[in-house]
């Protein structure tokens, strides 16, 4: 019996053809057993992409709210500590805690009747939220769910 590769779930924030932002639960599933070199035992790896990126660590203070805005660049966001929420124009609100992952690609949104475009986000609870961001190049701007399958 062969060992089944893992799946890593993430939320993908994206923009439809009408300029409305949404969130979809997606999975990275292209894992293969590989050694990282030397005498390291094989581990499950999914080579998502290779290239130039901008890596950031962020801390959102208690009570922080980022009112309606688009992700400034296509970016992977990993929650390290604390919790935060992301709400899209379609009304979907997702709360994420430590270890949860999101890909933000809601560029090219159009304001709705209330002026909302992109998403709003903020901290949840009485602790700051620490995030690790990996910003990608324009090739991934407004990427839709399935871009990393």
Observed structural traits:
149 residues, mainly beta, Jelly Rolls, 6-stranded mixed β-sheet, 4-stranded antiparallel β-sheet, 46% strand, globular
Architecture blueprint of SSEs:
Layout: E1 8-15, E2 21-28, E3 32-34, E4 43-45, E5 54-60, E6 65-69, E7 75-81, E8 83-88, E9 93-96, E10 101-105, E11 119-124, E12 129-135
Parallel strand pairs: 1-10
Antiparallel strand pairs: 1-2, 3-4, 5-12, 6-11, 7-10, 7-12, 8-9, 8-11
Question: Can you offer a commentary on this structure?
Answer:
This protein has 149 residues and is mainly beta. The chain contains no helices and twelve strands. The protein has a single domain, classed as Jelly Rolls (Sandwich), CATH 2.60.120. The radius of gyration is 17 Å and the shape is globular.
Radius of gyration: 17 Å
Largest sheet strand order: 2-1-10-7-12-5
- Enter the CATH topology name: Jelly Rolls
The CATH architecture designation is Sandwich
Q: Which CATH class?
A: Mainly Beta
Number of domains: 1
Mean pLDDT: 96
> What amount of the residues lies in strands?
over 45%
For the termini, the CA-CA separation is: 25 Å
Helix content: under 10%
The CATH superfamily title: Jelly Rolls
Label the overall shape: globular
Main pleated sheet: 6 strands, mixed
Structural class: mainly beta
Number of strands: 12
Low-confidence stretches: none
- Tally of individual helices: 0
SSE string, helices as H and strands as E: EEEEEEEEEEEE
């Amino acid at each position: 019996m062969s060992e089944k590769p893992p799946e890593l779930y993430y939320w993908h924030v994206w923009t439809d053809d009408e300029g409305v932002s949404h969130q979809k639960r997606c999975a990275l599933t292209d894992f293969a057993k590989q050694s990282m070199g030397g005498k390291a035992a094989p581990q499950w790896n999914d080579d998502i992409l290779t290239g130039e990126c901008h890596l950031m660590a962020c801390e959102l203070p208690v009570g922080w709210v980022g009112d309606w805005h688009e992700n400034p660049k296509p970016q992977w966001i990993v929650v390290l500590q604390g919790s935060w929420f992301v709400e899209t124009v379609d009304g979907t609100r997702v709360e994420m805690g430590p270890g949860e992952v999101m890909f933000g690609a809601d560029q090219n949104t159009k304001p709705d009747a209330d002026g909302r475009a992109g998403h709003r986000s903020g901290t949840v609870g009485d602790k700051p939220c620490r995030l690790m961001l990996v910003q990608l190049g324009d090739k991934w701007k407004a990427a839709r769910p399935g871009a990393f399958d």
